[in-house]
Zinc-dependent alcohol dehydrogenase family protein
Amino acid sequence: MRATVIYGERDIRLDEVADPKLSSGGDAIVRVVAACVCGSDLWPYRGVTPTTEPHRIGHEFVGIVQEIGPDVQTVAVGDFVIAPFYDCDNTCVNCRNGVSTSCLNGGWWGSEDKFGGFADGAQGELVRVPHADGSLVATPQMPEAEQVPGLLTLADVMGTGHHAAVSAGVTLGSTVVVVGDGAVGLCAIIAAKRLGASRIVAMSRHADRQALALEFGATDIVEERGDEGVARIREMFDGIGADCILECVGTKESMDQAIRSARPGGMVGYVGAPNGGPELPVRSLFNRNVGVNGGVASVRGYIEELLPEVLSGEIDPGRVFDLQLPLADVAEAYAAMDERRAIKVLLRP
Amino acid sequence: MRATVIYGERDIRLDEVADPKLSSGGDAIVRVVAACVCGSDLWPYRGVTPTTEPHRIGHEFVGIVQEIGPDVQTVAVGDFVIAPFYDCDNTCVNCRNGVSTSCLNGGWWGSEDKFGGFADGAQGELVRVPHADGSLVATPQMPEAEQVPGLLTLADVMGTGHHAAVSAGVTLGSTVVVVGDGAVGLCAIIAAKRLGASRIVAMSRHADRQALALEFGATDIVEERGDEGVARIREMFDGIGADCILECVGTKESMDQAIRSARPGGMVGYVGAPNGGPELPVRSLFNRNVGVNGGVASVRGYIEELLPEVLSGEIDPGRVFDLQLPLADVAEAYAAMDERRAIKVLLRP
């Protein structure tokens, strides 16, 4: 089969690799219908995270079950399935606590899983899915083609935006600021709206993203950043800031923006992978009682909640895909996102 | 009147100072019945926070209203009142949001308030209280002498322990670890128990504090610290850690202990003033979805909730005072706490 391999900085290739094989009683082989490029894939692409040797890449996909192990019970050959950006058994104590990204038996696409060998990266034609019963969620019926982008967002960005909103405690009447206008930030707007936020500020400087933010439910746009951005936000909310800040970037600057935009007693829900690890300024958090909650989003547990609204069209997160390319053009997909020519690129094998 | 002044490292004196005077329509003069020494008073006492010039010190007191300004409505001369460790109007947007420590018009004992001049430190005979209507809570009747220590804890340590528990989201059935066996940590045990925690681990190495912790509701004692402490806690809770960690110290080591003792998806409620400001390790918080919430405790808002249980004896936080001294012995009070001969010292003018 063909699968995407990263060789180094800005060196993405579609290679011919061995087809995956079932290797334990509970896994499944899924034929990928759609995959995509994640903002976090750009860290190795840009060389910020060094690539020491070529390896598979990608972690978001939907597809059709091609083969299952004898122990698999909840999905069947021919099912259309959504996979979260990690595998999990969905039964261990961490999964039961709603933190399936810390599954005691889970793993990550493109690496060895703990039991059955290699789990393919998702930007390819086939993926071996460990713990298929835990990891995969089948749609009630075969979706229409136009539903596929929305379903694909449940693999990561929609669930991750939702995690930001849940972690920040967004509820009926909350005032919300979303830091970051990438796919996750835009999905966080959808999430905040469906949780009942009364006002949602999108911090964005890009006209196309501003437009989508407003369509998704943002009530205000703020273009300023840094001190000016903080001043604007405070001015909008009683001079003190907003209840809930959804941090969807992961840089030192964006986290600083988020923390200072929160009102005393407010909460930052953060899902931007902290690349390089800016530390949090505990004294300023302490003085203003600003909490920080979130992390690598346990999207598996959100799929059942969000799926009906995606299928019904009540929410339309698939619109974050503003470019669709054949898998053969995966290198161009990375370039388009790197150069901000696209918010998020969908790949079809 | 006599009032406590800190001159420098380990130099605490009881000085003769001018009596306070009413200086605005809304303030009150309170005759102190009992005050105490706070763990945070030990930072300047030990020279960790430098004392550049002599200044009043103390911020916890209860007393009897001696005089009120013409605008004061909720307390009357002769009332027994509890003051939080700060003054606040209890009407501004931050107070309404439950964060009265960020009151837009508030201030701190022993410093200039924004309107009426100097607000005395509490380790003295009289205190001018700005915003008397907002700051003070009168007891329904004159308390018995043995109730005074419990009431005094509502000025700070009981409310602060409660804030740790609330910030960590302690609720029915929560598993809880309390880091710190000082007065706040011990009160946090009381708070966790009354909020319904199913298991409460006190991390303590001192026999007398362990005994009080168990009487207050701790179900387990852990003496280990650092890696061994984390290993013990994880072993006790499914190998993953506890739901809620109440951090009641404020050092880098105690915060590290707290963060690593939380299970994935758990929450650290922290109230220990971060002295010198250890920064929070965002990557390890992110990877395990451990949240951090809390700060300088808005105890004013908790007084009404906790007061009935203190008066009825249902909770008995006053037991944290294991030494009572006349105000004249204030220097010895500091020494006793500094040398850990006392958990917390109550002072009577």
In short: The longest strand of chain A covers residues 28-36.
